[in-house]
């Protein structure tokens, strides 16, 4: 009897330590729903690895209240349970509504798609924390969420929610955090939001809210973080905002707010962060703001504000971040900055500052210094590079001169070094290779020179190098390390063939070598650079054929070989460049790693007849093929008609013969086509009438014949596009084709001429009768004149034939 009794006691003890079976069943149902789309059982749903025991209180992400006899589930931390490459139905949430004891629910970052369930949240009346952020939810916010009167934290950010923010949000009277940013919510911010008097964080940024900031927000006395960024809110900032005495963080950036900054904002004595950047604010910056003792982050960049540089400003606070970008600063760099000993980030770009960079600005604490787009002169202070904290230095587009400091490598923490568009001279110091964290190096558009380049080691992280538009010469350098993604060396004096070391750059995406003196043939190994997406060899001295291996460049979507001496026929393999077959996707850009704006040099291509610079983000969506100004012969390969992602195709100034393939008219995204200055014959394909996006066309200086298609976009082209083709006819060049019926009138003239014909109908009969009468008389005269003048003089005969 003792043994069965022991089993009963153990069974009772086991059940007393386990979660309720109904809770366990709900959790397993949730797991089943979010993993249902997983057809590969090996998929890494690691969050559920421990969900295979009988007691769900021991499962990862599950917390039970062990003080209660029933051990109910009270908290679920299931963020990131679904791998990034998978999606799950939003209905999976419904399985959790049966766990009415929940106080904490976090299912963020799970790629849940669909609408948030409209029914079921009313069961979770004990819920204090709800986080559904970073999913794929669409539709409106269910009103049932606003019934959770015990809720303290509500986070729905980073979804695709639409509709308005209901006034029922006022029911959440205990709410302390409300994050709805990064959605598509619209309409006005409800004034009832002012009833949330416990609110400390209000984040509605990156939505489509409009109208004024409701005055009721000023009732939120405990507000610490106000973020209304990137909406379309109007009106000025109300003076009553000064009533938020407990405010510690205020962000109104990118709202397109207008008007002046109210002086009363300086009364917010606990304000720690003030971000008003990227709006339409005007007027002078109130100097009283600098009296705020606790202000650490102050961002006014990109408004229409003016900071009076003549005022004696003596800030009472110690800034860690200060951005006065495009604030109308004039004169020298403000001297009051010399007292800011804690300054880590300083942005004074896009102003009108003059003079030199003061020595006191190069203190050891500075981490990011952005002074671009000013009128600064003098040399770059060498003590600037003695800082071990300097990570970002942008002095681009000034008038700085002199050599690069030899101790540039002492600033070993630099990640971004942008010194383009200045008047710097001399070589690149060898010490620059000591900067092991360097990612971006832009020295373009200076007067740097030399033929000796730093040797970056195999451990460097350097990904972006731009040395274009300088005076470097000799063989092309390839010693920038193995992580290179973008290498721009254009506009220099490099000579010799393409170095074989290019083939070892495993991550290269952009190679820009235009306007140099590179010789030899395009090597066969070029086809092994499988990661290349932009290849620009324009205006060099390359010769010979294009190797067939170029078709192996599956990601290539911009190819510019113009202005060389390339010969032979255009290889049919060019029609198999996969990156031009479909619309190009946006490739990774190194600038995407950073949260602030980085102005990188443009990639220049010939676009619609002119040389244009396309930014790195824009060029990634273009497909461009330029073979112009070479010595290509033979015919246009019909395989080029496969490149349906092309936006620009240029084969002008070659020796191409034969006809235009009809399937070029199937390049539906083509905006610019230039086949001019060749020996192309035959007619213009009628398929060109389907090129709806075509805005630039040049077929001039060829041997084309026949009628120009007169439908679609091609009908609106000017005669310049077809000049010097003696056999063409059509309305575009105002040359009548032989098959045209003279009695036919154009559609544009039909209405006007119809009225004229109706009025003069009687006149036609008079003309017809007169014609036959005159013809009869003429025949009679000619008959009798033959007897009088049997042999007409030769000059009359010749004149007659000429008139014929």
UniProtKB/TrEMBL annotation:
Membrane topology annotation: Single-pass type I membrane protein
Q: Which residues form the Leucine-rich repeat-containing N-terminal plant-type domain?
A: 24-65
Transmembrane residue ranges: 762-789
Q: What subcellular locations does the record give?
A: Cell membrane
**Domain Disease resistance R13L4/SHOC-2-like LRR stretches:** 96-205
Q: Which GO terms describe its molecular function?
A: kinase activity
BP GO terms, sorted: post-embryonic development
| Listed SUPFAM superfamilies | L domain-like (SSF52058)
InterPro entries linked: Leu-rich_rpt, Leu-rich_rpt_typical-subtyp, LRR_dom_sf, LRR_N_plant-typ, LRR_R13L4/SHOC2-like
Checking Pfam families in the record gives: LRR_1, LRR_14, LRR_8, LRRNT_2
Q: Could you state one GO cellular component term attached to this entry? A: plasma membrane
Domain of life where this protein originates: Eukaryota
Q: Where is the signal peptide?
A: 1-18
Q: Does the keyword Repressor apply?
A: no
Print the keywords alphabetically.
Answer: Cell membrane, Glycoprotein, Kinase, Leucine-rich repeat, Membrane, Receptor, Repeat, Signal, Transferase, Transmembrane, Transmembrane helix
Q: What family is this?
A: Belongs to the RLP family.
State what protein this is by name: Putative LRR receptor-like serine/threonine-protein kinase
């Amino acid at each position: 009897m003792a043994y069965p009794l022991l089993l009963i006691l153990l069974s009772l003890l086991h059940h007393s330590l386990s979660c309720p079976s109904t809770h366990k069943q709900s959790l397993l149902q949730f797991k089943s729903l979010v993993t249902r789309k997983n057809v590969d059982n090996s998929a890494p749903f690691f969050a559920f690895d421990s969900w295979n025991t009988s007691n769900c209180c021991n499962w990862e992400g599950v917390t039970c209240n062990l003080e209660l006899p029933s051990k109910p589930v009270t908290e679920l931390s299931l963020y990131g349970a679904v791998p990034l490459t998978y999606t799950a139905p939003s209905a999976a949430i419904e399985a959790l509504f049966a766990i009415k004891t929940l106080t904490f629910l976090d299912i963020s970052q799970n790629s849940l798609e669909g609408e948030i369930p409209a029914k079921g949240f009313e069961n979770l009346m004990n819920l204090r924390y709800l986080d559904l952020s970073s999913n794929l939810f669409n539709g409106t916010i269910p009103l049932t969420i606003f019934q959770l009167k015990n809720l303290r934290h509500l986070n729905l950010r980073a979804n695709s929610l639409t509709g308005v923010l209901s006034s029922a949000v006022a029911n959440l009277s205990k709410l302390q955090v409300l994050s709805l940013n990064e959605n598509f919510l619209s309409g006005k911010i409800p004034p009832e939001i002012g009833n949330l008097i416990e609110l400390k964080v209000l984040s509605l940024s990156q939505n489509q809210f409009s109208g004024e900031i409701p005055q009721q927000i000023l009732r939120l006395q405990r507000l610490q973080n106000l973020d209304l960024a990137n909406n379309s809110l109007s009106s000025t900032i109300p003076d009553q905002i000064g009533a938020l005495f407990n405010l510690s963080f205020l962000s109104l950036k990118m709202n397109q707010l207008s008007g002046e900054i109210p002086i009363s904002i300086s009364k917010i004595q606990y304000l720690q962060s003030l971000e008003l950047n990227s709006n339409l604010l005007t007027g002078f910056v109130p100097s009283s703001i600098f009296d705020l003792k606790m202000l650490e982050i102050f961002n006014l960049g990109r408004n229409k504000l003016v900071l009076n540089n003549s005022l004696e400003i003596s800030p009472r606070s110690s800034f860690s971040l200060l951005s006065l970008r495009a604030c109308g600063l004039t004169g020298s760099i403000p001297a009051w900055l010399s007292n800011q000993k804690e300054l880590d980030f300083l942005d004074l770009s896009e102003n009108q500052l003059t003079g030199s960079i003061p020595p006191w600005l190069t203190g050891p604490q500075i981490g990011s210094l952005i002074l671009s787009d000013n009128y600064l002169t003098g040399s770059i202070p060498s003590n600037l590079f003695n800082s071990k904290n300097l990570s970002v230095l942008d002095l681009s587009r000034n008038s700085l001169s002199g050599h690069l400091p030899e101790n540039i490598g002492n600033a070993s923490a630099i990640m971004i070094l942008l010194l383009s568009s200045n008047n710097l001279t001399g070589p690149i110091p060898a010490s620059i290779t000591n900067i092991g964290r360097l990612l971006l190096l832009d020295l373009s558009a200076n007067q740097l020179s030399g033929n000796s380049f730093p040797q970056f080691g195999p451990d460097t992280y350097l990904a972006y190098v731009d040395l274009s538009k300088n005076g470097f010469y000799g063989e092309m350098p390839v010693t920038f390390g193995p992580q290179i993604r973008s290498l721009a060396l254009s506009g220099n004096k490099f000579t010799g063939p393409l170095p074989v070391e290019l083939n070892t750059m495993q991550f290269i995406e952009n190679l820009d070598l235009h306007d140099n003196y590179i010789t030899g043939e395009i090597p066969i190994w070029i086809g092994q650079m499988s990661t290349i997406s932009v290849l620009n060899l324009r205006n060099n001295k390359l010769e010979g054929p294009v190797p067939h291996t170029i078709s192996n460049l599956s990601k290539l979507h911009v190819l510019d070989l113009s202005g060389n001496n390339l010969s032979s026929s255009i290889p049919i393999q060019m029609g198999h460049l996969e990156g031009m077959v479909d619309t190009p996707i946006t490739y990774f850009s190194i600038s995407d790693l950073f949260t602030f704006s980085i102005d990188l040099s443009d990639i220049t291509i010939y676009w619609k007849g002119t040389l244009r610079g396309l930014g790195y983000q824009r060029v990634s969506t273009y497909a461009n093929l330029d073979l112009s100004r070479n010595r290509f012969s033979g015919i246009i390969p019909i395989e080029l008609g496969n490149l349906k992602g092309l936006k620009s195709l240029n084969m002008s100034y070659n020796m191409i013969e034969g006809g235009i393939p009809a399937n070029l008219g199937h390049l539906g995204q083509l905006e610019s086509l230039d086949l001019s200055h060749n020996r192309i014959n035959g007619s213009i394909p009628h398929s060109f009438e389907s090129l709806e996006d075509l805005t630039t066309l040049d077929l001039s200086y060829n041997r084309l014949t026949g009628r120009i298609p007169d439908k679609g976009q091609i009908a609106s082209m000017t005669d310049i596009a077809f000049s010097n083709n003696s056999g063409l006819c059509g309305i575009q060049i105002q040359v009548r084709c032989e098959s045209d019926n003279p009695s036919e009138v154009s559609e544009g003239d039909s209405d006007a001429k119809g009225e004229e014909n109706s009025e003069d109908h009687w006149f036609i009969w008079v003309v017809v009768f007169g014609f036959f009468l005159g013809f009869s008389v003429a025949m009679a005269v000619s008959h009798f004149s033959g007897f009088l003048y049997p042999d007409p003089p030769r000059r009359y005969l010749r004149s007659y034939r000429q008139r014929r």
